[in-house]
Amino acid sequence: MPPKQNLVDDLAAQANSVNSADYFTLIKKTVLQLKIEQKNNKTRCDSGRLLCLPHSGTAIIVGDLHGDLASLTYILKNYHFVKDAKQGKNVHLIFLGDYGDRGSRSPEVYFVILKLKETFPDKVVLMRGNHEGPDDLIPYPYDLPKRFRAKFGEEDGKALVFEMCKLFKRLFNAVLIEKWAILIHGGVPSNVKSIEDLAWAHKMHPQNRTLEEMLWNDPQDGLDGTFASPRGAGRLFGLDVTNRLLDILSIKVLIRGHEVCQEGFRFNHDSKVLTLFSTNKGQYWNKYGAYLRINLRNKINNPQHIKKGIIQFE
């Protein structure tokens, strides 16, 4: 008798064989779950698209995956998230966005993540990346529709991408870990004045560029203020912009994804900005991928203290 598969292997197998009807149902379930979360989410800004987590328990924070199913399954197995979650431990699995696109297994990666959300709804947090952005800010190259059509056929693939775009609009703009960190996919918006600006950025778009900058901005050392980004969307932001947001929120560090890192991670702005990139496959050619495992109960006096929680992999 073959050995029993663990949940991670089982989800990967399901992702390979799922039919379009079951995938469609899963997307609809996730949208409903996110609606419930955002309605009941009690934060300093009355819900919106900002999730507030207490300064307690353990978290694993995952950066860009870009259709890399192998790295996703490696992280899940290496961290033992499923085992801890099943045992009812105070754990959170937080994704910083950019789950698909530019990778050959984008539909499968989204499927596994949505199944994890279905199985552990209170422990899995789904954030919005620039590859899950609004319709007027499509990244390039954008191959997600092609991947879904190749897997499910022209008609079903197109319908599923349409439903996925509805889901993207429900993902969280930011996650605040009280007294500790703010998680944003790209970076700090130029003119943020309060936590409400982050929570309701999706409502102000496109008249206001806050959401665009949250999804597309990049930190730049040696820069004051902000400067036009070579990406064609968003801006580069300096240490003064980071410090202003950290002071507003009374926290120590910004954790974000969005940029490829040769070592899988990088610190900027006097170690007050940590970038995580959790794939080293496909077109990026970085040596390592990395993710962060952190005990949220620990007091953070120096942002570099979190470095010991960074786990690299080849």
Unreliable residue runs: none
Structural class: alpha/beta
Q: Can you write the helix and strand succession as a string?
A: HHEEHHEHEHHEEHHHEEEHEEEEE
Classify the fold: give the CATH topology: Purple Acid Phosphatase, chain A, domain 2
* CA radius of gyration: 18 Å
Indicate the CATH class.
Alpha Beta
Q: How many E strands?
A: 14
Given the C-alpha coordinates, what overall shape results? globular
Strand fraction equals: 15-25%
Number of DSSP helices?
A: 11
The CATH superfamily is identified as: Metallo-dependent phosphatases
Oligomeric description of these chains = single chain
Brief characterization of the structure:
Helix content is 36%, strand content 18%. It has helices at residues 7-17, 20-40, 69-79, 81-86, 106-119, 144-152, 154-168, 195-199, 201-204, 210-216, 239-249, and strands spanning 50-53, 58-62, 91-95, 124-126, 174-177, 181-184, 218-219, 226-228, 235-237, 253-256, 265-268, 273-276, 289-295, 310-313. Helix 1 packs across helix 5, helix 2 packs across helix 5 and helix 6 packs across helix 7.
Explain how this protein is built.
It is a single chain. The strands form 3 sheets. Strands 1-5-6-10-12-11 form a 6-stranded mixed sheet, with helices on one face. A hairpin with a 6-residue loop joins strand 8 and strand 9. It is built from 11 helices and 14 strands. The chain is α/β, with parallel strands linked by helices and 314 residues long. The protein has one domain: 4-Layer Sandwich (Purple Acid Phosphatase, chain A, domain 2), CATH 3.60.21. The protein is globular. The mean pLDDT is 93. Helix 6 crosses helix 7. The longest helix has 21 residues.
